[in-house]
Specification:
Elements: E1 2-6, H1 10-22, E2 27-32, H2 36-46, E3 50-51, H3 54-60, E4 63-66, H4 70-82, E5 86-90, H5 97-110, E6 114-117, H6 124-136, E7 139-147, H7 161-171, H8 173-184, E8 187-195, E9 199-206, E10 211-217, E11 226-233, E12 236-239, H9 247-264, H10 272-291, E13 295-296
Parallel strand pairs: 1-2, 1-4, 2-3, 4-5, 5-6, 7-10
Antiparallel strand pairs: 7-11, 8-9, 8-13, 9-10, 11-12
Helix pairs in contact: 1-9, 4-5, 5-10, 8-10
Length: 297
């Protein structure tokens, strides 16, 4: 399958293009970006064509891998789907539910496969953990903490405008939800509170009575970073395992998942519809945070 990469930033260069260039069943066929100079640099780095016209890229590939801000990603994903291209998307899928729903509708209308790269879901140890514990069932609570500190000198994401504007809720929230929803189920409603250093704390009520709490920030004190998830159920308590592969290898697994979905026609668990479900939850959390109310999803 021939892939075009949309985007020229750090993630596009060191993860997406790197994984596609070495995947045994995929070919990196071209790059398009909003900056002609950066597009040329990235294309030269991997020895592929640089495109200044995204529609020309669409004509030359079978699928796109998108590494762009979510508000830029969503309309381009719709255009790619309408052009008949399979979609390997980044999280969050969009910054508002309507835009996310348009991607889902476009993919369904065109009959193309979609996978949203929730990194944890493509790490074998995490995937096996979620599958095994979903089969066990009986989970009634989860607590997750994701305290990152990206606005430090030298961090490749320190200059990300959309991350500065939307914070950990939208950048880390998708990662957190991707490992909570498989065990506790869909979210019915939620409340939110703000804390120092742009921290947001969520209390979510799930179908069936389970509840979870998430605490998220991109701007933790450098010595106060923390990442962890604990789960509690009728059969005991457990914690999410650590990664056993690199992000590049995880993205390679996502490429394989998209290939499988495109071949079989079976939707992946992390398809655009799941990505849109996450966006709806995040939008409700944004409203809950701004209004100090309980908001239905």
């Amino acid at each position: 399958m021939r892939f075009g990469v949309l985007g020229t930033g750090h993630w596009a260069a060191v993860t997406q293009a790197a994984a596609l260039s070495t995947h045994p069943s995929a070919t990196l066929a071209g790059v398009w970006g909003r900056s002609p100079d950066k597009t040329a640099d990235l294309a030269s780095r991997y020895g592929v064509p640089a495109y200044d016209d995204v529609d020309a890229l669409f004509r030359d590939v079978d699928a796109v891998a998108i590494a762009l801000p979510p508000d830029v990603q969503a309309p381009l994903a719709v255009r790619a789907a309408e052009a008949g291209k399979h979609l390997l998307l980044d999280k969050p899928l969009a910054l508002d539910p309507a835009a996310a729903d348009r991607v889902v509708a476009a993919a369904a209308e065109a009959g193309v496969a979609s996978v949203v790269f929730f990194t944890n879901r493509f790490v074998p140890s995490v995937d096996a953990f979620l599958r095994d514990n979903a089969a066990v069932g009986g989970w009634y609570a989860a607590h997750g903490t994701m305290y990152a500190s990206i606005f430090q000198p030298g961090n490749p994401y320190a200059g990300s405008v959309w991350r500065k504007q939307h914070g950990g809720l939208w950048d880390l929230g998708p990662h957190a939800l991707s490992v909570v929803l498989p065990l506790l189920g869909p979210v019915l409603d939620l409340s939110a509170a703000e804390g120092p250093r742009d921290t947001v704390h969520l209390l979510l009520r799930h179908e069936g009575g389970a509840a979870s709490t998430l605490s998220l920030t991109l701007d933790a004190a450098p010595d106060a970073t923390s990442f962890g998830f604990s789960y509690f159920g009728e059969h005991g308590a457990t914690t999410l395992p650590e990664w056993d592969i690199t992000p590049v290898e995880a993205f390679g697994a996502a490429v394989s998942a998209l290939l499988d979905s495109a071949t079989t026609g079976a939707p992946h668990a992390c398809d655009a519809a799941f990505g849109a479900q996450v966006v709806h939850i995040l939008a409700a959390a944004e409203k809950a945070r701004s209004t100090s109310t309980i908001v239905a999803v």
